[in-house]
Amino acid sequence: MELDFNTFSQSPLVVDLLHFLLAGLVVIFAVLWLVARAKMQVLSSAAAAAEQAPKPAPVAPAAAPAPAPLQTAKPDSALQLLALLQHEARFVDFIHEDLAGFADAEIGAVARVVHEGSKKVLHDYFTIAPLRGESEESTITVAAGFDPATVRLTGNVVGQAPFTGTLIHRGWEAQAVKLPRIADGHNTAIIAPAEVEL
Amino acid sequence: MSDIMTATEGSSPVEGPRYAIGIDLGTTNSVLSYVDLQQPDLLPGEAPAVHILPIPQLVAPGSVEDLPQLPSFQYIAHEAELNEGDLVLPWTNQPAAIVGTIARQLGQKTPMRLVASAKSWLCHGGVDRHAAFLPIGSPEEVSKTSPLQATYQYLCHLRDAWNQAQPEHPFASQAITVTIPASFDPVARELTAEAAGMAGIENLNLLEEPMAAVYSWVQSNGEEWRSQVAVGDVILVVDIGGGTTDLSLVAVAEEDGSLVLNRIAVGEHILLGGDNMDLALAYRVKAKLAAEGKELAGWQIQAITQACRDAKEALLSDNDTEAVPIVVPSRGSKLLGGTLRAELTRQEVSETLVEGFFASVAVDELPRQTRRSALTQRGLPYAQDPAVTRHLAAFLSRQQGANSDAGAEDFDPLAAADPLAGAAAHSFIKPTAILLNGGVLKAPRVVERLQAVINHWLTEADAAPAKLLSGIDLDLAVARGASYFGHVRQGKGVRIRGGLAHAYYVGIESSMPAVPGMEPPLEALCIAPFGMEEGTEAAPESGEFGLVVGEPVHFRFFSSSTRRQDAVGARLESWSDDELVELPEIQVTLPAEEPRAGEVVMVRLVARVTEVGTLALEAVAVDGGAEARTWKVELDVRNTGAASTAE
Predict the structure, then answer these.
(1) Is residue B60 scored above 70 in pLDDT?
(2) Which residues of A touch B111 (CB under 8 A)?
(3) What share of chain A is helix, strand, coil (3-state, %, to 5)?
(4) Residues B485, B501: Cα–Cα separation, whole Å
(5) Which CATH superfamily is domain B230-431+439-473 in?
(6) How far is it, in rounded angstroms, from Cα B255 to Cα B494?
(7) B329 touches chain A (CB under 8 A)
(8) What is the mean pLDDT of chain B?
(9) Quick one: which of A153, B38, B574, B633 is 20 to 30 A from A22 by CA?
(10) Residue of higher predicted confidence among B554 and A141
(11) Nearest chain A alpha carbon to B83
(12) CA A121, A127, A130, A131 torsion: positive or negative?
């Protein structure tokens, strides 16, 4: 989804072409638009990583048809994660709430439920570690041959590696993803069943 | 799996189990651990690595996860409740029973279909443990299961998980140790063995949980353990699980120049554990909310209990957290507005748990029996006094003589120091080391208090404070110790000597003229003495009974955890109330074969402790010579009526 933001800064022609290619992706991600607001990074890396678990590298799966450089992630693991977040953290409930009219204290109480549950989900199903061990706001050197996917250079990007700059954000990497296995034919679109007490 | 291949190809064509499997069949969680018995490059005396098997289990309909613990719950689902395919496990599409995390999850919202605490029911002498009466109190329509069947189902799940992970080394042919509370009565032991047999386990051993914790301590400390204790030490093992508190004493002695461990005493079955503590906190929060005019529904109390479980750990650690918010979200999709918020403070947790469950009491205090606390539930005989420390004091006092006749005749520093304390002082056995186990004891403040109370008793009695032994995983130690025990049984490493932790007696009514208003005096005949070891038999010289062929004969049955001196055949004419505990009666039936019905056969009762660790009683004909006929004595007499579940 970061692609969207990047492409806006380019020419309209490119935007159209990309949107055409992304059409399928957008339909699926429409389901996830709420999630994308807050959890975009986690989700996209989860979906990608789950596809090819247990390998940690968050790269798109192989065996793609030659002309299409983009792939559509299967919705199953994304939906599975939503179901887990809903079950443990009431995530979908919370995002669907209209916060207007509620005091911060009330929202805060609910935020604890969401935070604790989400934390449990992240902890139980992912191994997430910072990409850089240095403390933020310290000066670091990025050696030549670095992977631009793991280190993003911003600001005064000129000259040649090694680059020296301030570490703004340590970055996160999902080193392992271990979502529950799901039965064949299990309907993952049901994020939470309706509950009827007899 | 590659190491398995090399080992089987290797030089050892030894038949027999490849792995020692340890199963902690807990009241709330079960764990399976294993040790490779053919682990190469193991130095002499070195403890082998212990592994925990990840157990695939349903965590939600259609969703399977590998978890280290299998919650010991079974859910009896309604036929319309789940879809076909919702119960798929890696090894079957149609499991015979719904167990594990999913059972607990579903049961939280539909408790009447949840089978819980099967293990506690297994040790409940007041019910027919073969009878299908669980879930207790549910409507007739819900099909029922027995404590035995439920135990069998948990074992089956563990078996299938193992067979899936290790197809070349089938579960049934490995050396398997199942742990049981030290306080399990002979029937509960036999039933556990029976469930294991039903699950196909052939090579079974039963091991008491506190002993398993000690084994785990030995294993995790390696040879180092020998420097942590010395001859004459008495280790008090306190194991506080989710539902039960188990106490044992292990003495360190010397034999042929090396240290050996002897389990010298076990405590009573105390149904008191971490779950009671969470519940107590929940009720505290409930009372607070009630004071604000907020009434709680059952599901909210349950959610608060869950929240208190997490909050308690934060509040009992050594940190600055003064209060933890307890938030219970509404059940509907609208979270805001319907969410309940309360707070649990350090002060409250300290009052409720540390003072309530680990009160500073004197060593001569006894658990209170009269008042029933609000925490009890229908059915199980929960401990009435929540103070673990009081149960502990009673245990240490009752077992004051435990170490004197445990084979440490040569030198006993405790006995030597004792007489100076004088007869006026309350005497109790003085542990010199403490080993703690169980999730509750993760909380540093609870440990501090428990240690302080015990050490206060010791210093009052002019004894040195006990040191805390460390180095075990409080959640997994029992399972780990159990599989290590399998390794020890092969003659490697130190073995803790156990044997019967009780002496057993049958009651005989004396024949005397009837006196109105007076029960005929009862004599107790010792049929199995204290400390009888596995694989031995008690040979009585006296104690003959005339049994009528074809008619079931009942005997009153007693046990004692303190009468170490009684040999087999000893007759007691009187005893104090706390010395002998009456167990459910036992029964023997001489089948009416041939034309002998009505005939009287003279028999003696012979007790045997099996290799498995169960007690077997037989009636042996007195005049049979070498080929004397024997009949099995049923320890678990099945009630013909419905399960008599009290209340």
Answers:
(1) yes
(2) none
(3) 45, 10, 45
(4) 18
(5) ATPase, substrate binding domain, subdomain 4 (3.90.640.10)
(6) 11
(7) yes
(8) 84
(9) A153
(10) A141
(11) A186
(12) negative
